[in-house]
Specification:
75 residues, alpha+beta, 4-stranded antiparallel sheet, 4 strands, globular, Heavy-metal-associated_CS
């Protein structure tokens, strides 16, 4: 039996460097269901963040993690 995962992709504004990527990644990895985080950095726009998790993560949980890192999710 294969393990099922959920992939969530969203935009985050305000990230300008590798340190920003690290902060966002660390905050998201603290969420229990998160298996992996990948970020395509866009310094002059919304960076694309992809989260792979065991279960669907509520939008409020993701938003809180991004807020804690000091950035904003693009709606």
């Amino acid at each position: 039996m294969s393990e099922q995962t959920t992939t969530t992709t969203f935009g985050v504004t305000g990230m300008t460097c590798g340190n920003c990527v690290r902060h966002v990644t660390e905050e998201l990895e603290q969420i229990d269901a998160v298996k992996s985080v990948s970020i395509e950095l866009v310094t002059d726009g919304a960076s694309q963040v992809t989260v792979v998790s065991d279960d669907e993560i509520p939008a409020d949980t993701l938003r809180h993690a991004i807020d804690e890192a000091g950035y904003s999710i693009v709606v």
